[in-house]
Write a structure and sequence with these properties.
The complex is a heterodimer of chains A (307) and B (394).
Chain A: E1 10-14, H1 19-31, E2 34-39, E3 47-50, E4 53-58, H2 61-68, E5 72-75, H3 79-91, E6 96-99, H4 106-115, E7 122-124, E8 130-133, E9 144-147, E10 156-163, H5 167-178, E11 183-188, H6 199-208, E12 214-220, H7 225-236, E13 241-246, H8 270-279, E14 283-284, H9 291-301
Parallel strand pairs in A: 1-2, 1-5, 2-4, 5-6, 6-7, 10-11, 10-12, 12-13, 13-14
Antiparallel strand pairs in A: 3-4, 8-9, 8-11
Chain B: H1 5-14, E1 22-25, H2 31-35, E2 43-47, E3 58-59, E4 67-70, H3 73-83, E5 87-89, E6 98-99, E7 103-106, E8 113-122, E9 127-133, H4 140-146, E10 151-155, H5 164-173, H6 178-197, E11 200-211, E12 215-218, E13 222-225, H7 234-237, H8 247-254, E14 258-261, E15 266-270, H9 273-285, E16 292-295, H10 302-313, E17 320-327, H11 332-345, E18 352-358, H12 361-369, E19 375-378, H13 381-393
Parallel strand pairs in B: 15-17, 17-18, 18-19
Antiparallel strand pairs in B: 1-7, 2-4, 2-7, 3-5, 5-6, 8-9, 8-11, 9-10, 11-12, 11-13, 14-16
Helix pairs in contact in B: 5-6, 10-11, 11-12
Classes of the chains: A alpha/beta (307), B alpha+beta (394).
């Protein structure tokens, strides 16, 4: 099965006519994603055309939802306006908003998160590659791809992957696919210090998903979200979990690309997180090349098959 | 983005935070006009760097101390001349130290007590948090470790901002009464406004001081600004001091490359921050030492790859290069062409290991093999790291 999105999920794209949004809308359509609407203020009434697809564009999320019943959004809106786009999705009671945008001011996200309190809408990101539930077709087509991940590296299967990173996630996905296994859903929660869903939020969903049999948790320096997830896993998750933390060699205090990848104190270094992972029974990948193997070790130790 | 103490104080003062009077001098010609603004008598002379520990630091010519209390203006002038253009080494600058290009003169203050006050993002709650302590003038991490009960925290609800009762609570927790209490509340409110409206990631006042007669002042101020918000603060962006930044990092930013210099000898070129961090990690794992963090981002055009190569090669410590690209949407062959062109253009003679994975990888590998250049291909990250470490050690 999957979490959050399935091959049937109907998606609207905010920022569909921008170069970045357009490119990834085309790729998602090729993948089989049900993109049913686009939103670009001022371009309502126009159509986004790609091969045999003709996606209607609306001025507002409200119009798009009323016309198409879309329940999820991809936000490909520039940083100065992205928080506003997220709030528009939340206000229209979308089930899921996936904010791809990198560079949103922290203050804007502090306000977004506060505004979302009590809302049923789930936010993934920002500054994230998005979410993929692989399909049954060739190169995993027929699934749902919201964001910028390469579809073809995925394979339908039972491994759940949650990560702050983009290309490092693709690395894990590809390792799993190359072993002949596959993924249930892959979620990139993004590299910013104020994210929507956390590692723990996603882990809980994987734990409850009957078709996710093993989990890979990829984290990095900065903040303590991975620790929170690890502690919950120890108490509540029987499924095999492998983990990797990037940034063991990162110097303190420097922002390593991701706005959230800054070591603040002793607890948010890679070493501290790795130690806690081990305490919590998470099989730690010694290197980024070892992520799929680490999960296989964890699965073997629990007598679980990931096939 | 970091700013200097004198800039931080000027910024905070605009919001109504009480700071001791100070004047900055950006060249020796400015020393006397700056000092003319002070009465005859003691003046504090402070070297300006984006680094702490200046007071206990030592200049490379042996002169001790980046913060000096001069007894007369003439002595202040002498200290300023000794410090300006000199290289100061502190616990935070690294052993090479950094050149001092601005001097800040301030009035000395009679310190009755030192406190600590900071505002930052609490990543657990995604809310602003004010952190205060009765133990000022020392490392807050030590206080947190030894006497955590002396640290007080207030979380702000972003829907309503800092409330008056919260500022009062903090001032009472610091044990303040009378005018001290009133001035502390005023300062706390002003500091929060400064933090929020400037899009700061952190504002740290250490020490916050009580002075005779009820005064509460920020004796030192450290402000870090959210890079993501600078687009809406051109006046703050203008405070950037390129002298405090590694020129390679500044150059990289021009090409939308994210580059951070480290002290090893194996350079990396990677797409994606997480992958770039873990590339540094795996190099270390196999016994090597990364020379840099470099994220070419999602685009990684031929021009960016070439610019990245040139920047990497300006680092004299680099003895080998590892390129690790996971071409998602990106075509591996495009990257391979960029790498080959860059290697050719720079006349690269150092060991170069390229690991490509993803879209069109076969064509990419072929391009490298046919380039006529000495480029070693690798399959996995482990393979790539082991290869480059071995080649550099040879």
């Amino acid at each position: 099965m999957s979490i959050l999105v399935t091959s049937k999920t109907q998606v609207l794209v905010q920022g569909i006519t921008g170069e970045f949004g357009a490119r990834h809308t085309r790729l998602s359509l090729d993948y089989g994603t049900k993109i049913v609407a686009g939103v670009t203020p001022g371009k309502g009434g126009q159509f986004f055309e790609h091969k045999k697809h003709r996606v209607p564009i609306f001025n507002t999320v409200a119009d798009a939802v009323a016309a198409t019943g879309a329940t999820a959004s991809a936000v490909f809106v520039p940083p100065a306006f992205a928080a506003d786009a997220i709030l528009e999705g939340v206000a229209n009671k979308l089930e899921l908003v996936v904010a791809i945008t990198e560079g949103i001011p922290v203050r804007d996200m502090i306000r977004v998160k506060r505004a979302m309190a009590g809302s049923a809408t789930r936010l993934i990101g920002p500054n994230c590659p998005g979410i993929v539930t692989p399909g049954k077709g060739k190169n995993s087509r027929g699934g749902c791809r919201i964001g910028i991940s390469p579809g073809y590296i995925h394979k339908k299967g039972s491994v759940g992957i949650v990560s702050r990173s983009g290309t490092l996630t693709y690395e894990a996905v590809w390792q799993v696919t190359c072993k002949g296994l596959g993924q249930s859903t892959c979620v990139g929660i993004g590299g910013d210090p104020v994210p929507g869903l956390s590692h723990l939020d996603i882990i809980k969903l994987f734990a409850a998903d009957r078709n996710t049999k093993g989990i890979i948790l990829i984290g990095e320096i900065g903040g303590t979200a991975e620790v929170e997830a690890a502690r919950w896993i120890k108490e509540h998750c029987a499924k095999p979990v492998a983990g990797f933390i990037a940034g063991a060699t990162a110097p303190k205090g420097r922002r390593m690309g991701h706005a959230g990848a800054v070591i603040g104190g002793k607890e948010d270094t890679a070493a501290a997180k790795i130690a806690i992972f081990k305490e919590c029974g998470i099989e730690v990948a010694a290197t980024p090349s070892d992520m799929a193997d680490a999960l296989l070790r964890a699965a073997q130790a629990k007598g679980v098959s990931l096939e | 983005m970091n700013i200097h103490e004198y800039q931080a104080k000027a910024l905070l003062e605009k919001f109504g935070v009480a700071v001791p009077k100070g004047v900055a001098a950006r060249s020796p010609a400015e020393f006397e006009p700056a000092l003319a603004q002070f009465p005859e008598g003691p003046v504090v002379v402070k070297a300006q760097l984006h680094a702490g520990g200046r007071g206990k630091g030592t200049f490379t010519d042996g002169f001790k101390g980046g913060v000096k209390i001069a007894q007369t203006k003439a002595e202040a002038l002498e200290y300023a001349k000794r410090m300006f253009g000199n290289t100061l080494v502190t616990v935070q600058t690294g052993p090479a130290g950094r050149k001092v290009q601005t001097i800040y003169f301030t009035v000395p203050c009679q310190i009755e007590k030192e406190y600590y006050l900071a505002i930052l993002l609490d990543r657990v709650t995604s809310r602003p948090v004010l952190v205060a302590s009765t133990e000022g003038g020392v490392e807050i991490e030590a206080v947190a470790a030894n006497t955590p009960e002396k640290i007080f925290k207030i979380h702000v609800d972003p829907a309503v901002g800092l409330q008056a009762y919260q500022a009062r609570q903090l001032a009472f927790q610091l044990g303040l009464t009378g005018d001290y209490f009133k001035n502390a509340v005023k300062l706390i409110n002003a500091l929060y406004r400064a933090w929020w409206e400037s899009d700061a990631t952190m504002v740290e006042i250490n020490p916050l001081i009580a002075t005779a007669g009820g005064g509460i002042l920020a004796l030192d101020a450290k402000v870090a600004l959210d890079d993501n918000a600078l687009f809406r603060h051109p006046d703050l962006e203008a405070l950037r001091d390129l002298n405090e930044e590694d020129p390679k990092e500044t150059e990289a930013a021009k090409y939308s490359l994210n580059y951070i210099a480290l002290d090893g000898n194996i350079a990396c070129l990677v797409n994606g921050a997480g992958l770039a961090m873990s590339t540094m990690d795996i190099i270390k794992h196999y016994g090597g030492n990364p020379a840099n963090f470099l994220d070419v981002g999602g685009g990684a055009s031929k021009e960016q790859v070439q610019a990245a190569f040139k920047i990497i090669l300006t680092d004299p410590q680099v003895k080998g290069i590892l390129v690790n690209i996971f071409g998602g949407i990106m075509d591996c062959n495009t990257i391979a062409q960029g790498v080959a062109a860059a290697a050719r253009e720079t006349g690269l003679s150092l060991p170069l290991v390229v690991r490509l994975e993803g879209n069109n990888v076969a064509a990419g590998k072929q391009t490298l093999a046919e380039s006529g250049l000495k480029i070693e291909s690798a399959d996995s990250m482990a393979d790539a790291a082991q290869k480059i470490v071995k080649l550099v050690a040879a």
